[in-house]
Amino acid sequence: MIPADNPTSTAPRASSSEADPVLVRIDRHASGIRVATVTINNARRLNSLNSPLMQAFVDAVDGLRAEAGAVEDPVRALVLTGAGEKAFVGGADIDEMAALDAARARAFITRVHRCCDAVRAFPAPVIARIQGYTLGAGLELAAACDLRVAVDTAVLGMPEVKLGIPSVVEAALLPGLVGWGRTREMLLLGENFGAAEALAWGLVERVVPFAGLDAQVDRWLGALAGTTPGAVRIQKHLISRWETLPMDAAIQAGIDAFEAAWAGDEPSRAMAGFLEARRAHRGKAV
């Protein structure tokens, strides 16, 4: 990961005290792009999600949206992780859930959804850096991200049915990632599984030893540096639309998105640069 004391860091509007439930920073990656890191800071409880933490998380991610949508030098990616080495997010806070009634249960699970929705609506790609337990609401949050890398010792699962409740909200994303059969296995049995299974099922994109976790994040960030921010923003939005549209409408949405990309000068600048580099390469080859 980018070191916290990077001298090119930009102080974000969100909180940055080590006592805060959510930590936010913006750094300059080695590739030159600006990257936000959001850390769920509840390590002593395996980064479990309680109501104050969830509100702080939504506020932090929403507070970064303007940085990601900036025309000049935008934040090009958000890296989401948990504090410590034991957990990404160990789930929703069971102590709080145990005291719920029906009305408060609706409000609580709506807060879980808002956390996931803030990630899905973020204009730039969101990378889940999964370093340990990723259970229940934590797995839903990971599913809401665009890319997921997990340490090879990570433990994942959707154990809600063992606690008397169904898996809901962004658990609805799981069939698109792992298929209906695996989703039924995960949600109806509530059993935990390892990173190797998550990779085989398509739930995560990469599995690495702990020592390689940040290197994989850096590889993705380096690849993003070779793209253009406007095109990536349009592409992320279009992918989200594809998840809910019938095929004919999804194709039409793609045509609309292609047209929208030409509203600015990003395509012409990027293609001019490509053509110039190709001419220079051909000139060297002669």
Structure description:
By secondary structure, the protein is of the alpha/beta class. It has 2 domains: 22-225, 2-enoyl-CoA Hydratase, Chain A, domain 1 (Alpha-Beta Complex), CATH 3.90.226.10; 229-285, Lyase 2-enoyl-coa Hydratase, Chain  A, domain 2. The chain contains 11 helices and 10 strands. The chain has helices at 51-63, 65-68, 94-97, 102-120, 137-144, 174-189, 195-201, 213-225, 229-242, 247-261, 266-285, and strands at residues 22-28, 34-40, 75-82, 87-89, 126-130, 133-135, 147-151, 155-157, 193-194, 206-208. The strands form 2 sheets. The chain has a 6-stranded mixed beta sheet with strand order 1-2-3-5-7-10, sandwiched between helices. Helix 1 runs parallel beside helix 4.
How many domains make up the coordinates? Answer: 2
- Major β-sheet, in short? 6 strands, mixed
Which word captures the global form? globular
What is the overall number of helices?
11
CA distance, first residue to last residue: 42 Å
* Strand proportion: 15-25%
What Rg is obtained from the alpha carbons, in whole angstroms? 20 Å
Helical content stands at: 40-55%
The arrangement of helices and strands along the chain is EEHHEEHHEEHEEHEHEHHHH
Strand order of the largest sheet: 1-2-3-5-7-10
Mean pLDDT across every amino acid position: 93
Which CATH class of the largest domain? Alpha Beta
CATH topology of the largest domain: 2-enoyl-CoA Hydratase, Chain A, domain 1
Give the CATH superfamily of the largest domain.
2-enoyl-CoA Hydratase, Chain A, domain 1
Structural class: alpha/beta
The stretches of 5 or more residues where confidence is low (pLDDT under 50) are: 1-15
Mind telling me which CATH architecture of the largest domain this is?
A: Alpha-Beta Complex
Number of strands: 10
